[in-house]
Amino acid sequence: MAAQPTSSSTDADPTRPHKHPVDERLPALKMATSGLQHVAAMYAGVVAPPLIVGAAVGLTPTELTFLTGACLFTAGLATFLQTLGIWKIGARLPFVNGVTFAGVAPMIAVVNSTDDKSDALPVIFGAVIVAGVLGFFAAPFFSKAVRFFPPVVTGTVITLIGISLMPVAFGWAQGPNPAADDYGSTTNLGLAGATLVVVLLLRRFTRGFVKQIAVLLGLVVGTLVAIPFGATDFGPVADAAVVGFPTPFHFGAPQFQLAAILSMCVVMVVSMTESTADMLALGEIVERPADERTIAAGLRADTLGSALSPLFNGFMCSAFAQNIGLVAMTRIRSRYVVATGGGFLVLMGLCPMAASLIAVVPRPVLGGAGVVLFGSVAASGIQTLVKAGLEKDNNVLIVAVSLAVGIIPITAPEFYHAFPETAEIILDSGISTGCVAAVALNLVFNHLGGGRAADDEVTAPMDPQPASVH
């Protein structure tokens, strides 16, 4: 009986060394720099959708800046929901949330189908609100799918997440504009390579705090190196306002159109599938496996963040897989670090000048750091697969086919061009298709009809089967 008070009192003390790393509160400087590192890793992914959609709508530069700031602001709020949590909302893992890129194509379709472009954003916002509310109530049912994610499935999905992100890093390394003359130039690739080398050297020859913020230091060094080559543009800082607040419904009250709502609901399903996979991946990395309750809470945060985002002129929010790579590489697992990053995002949304400081980092420099970050995610997936029993022939087939299906959008982008546009939204997400394939194949080979999972062992994928096997 005497042990109970001692246990509860130690659990309540956040300074005790036995506290799980996810729940640790680090020193202020370490918290700030590590949080800023997360912002730097995901900044380009957050600002790209509003820039693309805003340009399609025909927004002025001032309005485009406002829309971008609004998306940063709502990403910060969604990250707070996910990391800190309230009630049964939030996975309480070091999870960054921001604008999902999966919604870009259907949002552009909404813009193109709207006669009066001034109505396009209100229609998009209305569709996101409905999709977010429906997703919120569906979260506890969707989370029950966790039992279909054994290590052979989660390892495959985590690996796919890393592989699917690599083209993003390679695109950044070539430059910000594919139409520019210097896209893919030796200068851009050299800056990416130099940043990568700096990060690797810091990871190899430093220790402690410096080693953990190697990516942030690499971005700073890469940006300084880029100055003599004219690749660093300080114009956004000079032109940015000091204070700006995302006025609610700045672009008009939300409008509700059935076609747009259905389209965004499909995106929400894709987003929830990817978020589930991301939570499983992050749970493995931080050594706090995501169970059904955690996934339900995380999906509630995603969907509630999405439903509230249009109030402040933001788009649908989802987990950012690239930040999982940062957690895997730095081993800083504190959710409060990511919450600090969410604070920086809110600050950027309220202070455009602060946001422009991150925008100064050249895209090739981000690409160099991205190679390390995204590669770390794939490596974490491989580590999970090692524990998945790949000596079993069935599991080898599951991994082989699922990876092949998942990399189709990367290796053959036009593969699904003949499919309806709604289907392409799902099929063009390699993470979603690979995830569905892995779950389905695991059921077929390891569960349905009594399977052969326990008996058939191979030492390599193409080894011949024993003569006794029919």
UniProtKB/TrEMBL annotation:
Topology of this chain in the membrane: Multi-pass membrane protein
UniProt biased composition (Polar residues): 1-12
Biased composition (Basic and acidic residues): 13-24
Record family assignment: Belongs to the nucleobase:cation symporter-2 (NCS2) (TC 2.A.40) family.
Compartments (UniProt record): Cell membrane
Disordered: annotated segments: 1-24
NCBIfam families: ncs2, NCS2_1, pbuX
Transmembrane helix among keywords: yes
Membrane-crossing residue ranges in chain numbering: 39-58, 64-81, 93-111, 123-142, 149-173, 185-202, 214-231, 251-270, 336-359, 365-385, 397-419, 425-445
Major place of residence: membrane
Pfam families linked to this entry: Xan_ur_permease
InterPro entries: NCS2, UacT-like, Xan_ur_permease
Entry keyword Oxidoreductase: no
Swiss-Prot/TrEMBL keywords: Cell membrane, Membrane, Transmembrane, Transmembrane helix, Transport
Protein name from the UniProt record: Xanthine permease
